[in-house]
What we know:
By secondary structure, the protein is of the alpha/beta class. The chain has one domain: 3-Layer(aba) Sandwich (Alkaline Phosphatase, subunit A), CATH 3.40.720.10. Helices cover 31% and strands 19% of the residues. It has helices at residues 25-33, 50-62, 68-72, 81-84, 97-105, 113-117, 126-136, 166-182, 208-213, 271-277, 288-295; strands at residues 7-14, 35-41, 90-93, 109-111, 139-140, 143-144, 152-158, 193-199, 236-237, 240-241, 246-256, 281-284. It has an 8-stranded mixed sheet with strand order 4-3-7-1-8-11-2-12, with helices on both faces. Strands 5-6 form a two-stranded antiparallel sheet. Helix 1 crosses helix 8 (166-182) and helix 7 packs across helix 8 (166-182). The longest helix is centred in the middle third of the chain and has 17 residues, at 166-182. The chain is globular and about 55 Å long. This is OLC1v1029231C3. It comes from Oldenlandia corymbosa var. corymbosa.
Amino acid sequence: MADKPSRAVVLYGDGLAPLIDSVHTHFHSMASLSSCGFLTLPHSPPSENDEARMVREFGELLDVNENVKDYTQADSQVPTISDRFMGLKAALVTNNSNLQCFGRKCGLTILSMNEITGSSHPLDQPFLGASGLLKVLGFQDGKTLDTSQFDLILVHMGAGEGPDGLVDIKQVNDLVGALVDMVKPETEISSRLHLSLIMSYGAVHGDGNSKSSLSVVKLDDNSKLSLLYPRQSYTLKAGKLRENVRCHSPMLIAQWQNAVTRRDLVGTFSFLNFKEHGGNLVIPADRFIHEVAFKLWKAPKYGA
């Protein structure tokens, strides 16, 4: 636990997990420094299109989907993220107009990388993008300012915003590398910046291959031993069984904060490596914002 509140960057590669390759060295480097695990999602409704999926899964990360209709109706009054988390100042960086509208309703300030960096091609200059993100969080020249414009910045990339996602995943990889490089352990800000990298599988149709190869369940459901296996916490909420948990194709998450987060034995950013060596195991995606808010001293600890 840090002796001062952290400030956080969340990089969210929407639908980009299947594209991760050995050439994305910054993903793997960060994973080797981090505590890694999974965020489970509910099953997709049968008629859901990709735009609706994008908003719904982002809503899971903010834990607003129980009241998602309220958040999507223009005239409804709903609690903002600041209301819910002790004045938390949060912003969303995205080019997607649907997410921009949804984010505003949730109380997020909408920014663009162009605004943050003052450049018309910021993602082609990853160190400029990383520097801009750190600046709005009150980090400059390796120092932590007493005040900041925001406590939390969420950066959404992917979901078809680049051709075949290859441009998107390269930009996320480069941005990860720039941030980790700028937050050296010897700098003052290294123990104050909480960095989360989330990569999701996007639209999943539940085919047999993904259910078996990307399942977070450790025992065969048909095994007699499964009757003796205790319910895992990600299948429960408020002591009651969750009715809709997709146990395959979860979001992959690596979290790093120097001298604060525990380092596990993960060596590469991959489903199999996370499953075999990850330290964070599995939590529902709707608990993510609570975990981050705790690091920022804006919420009580969730779980153990």
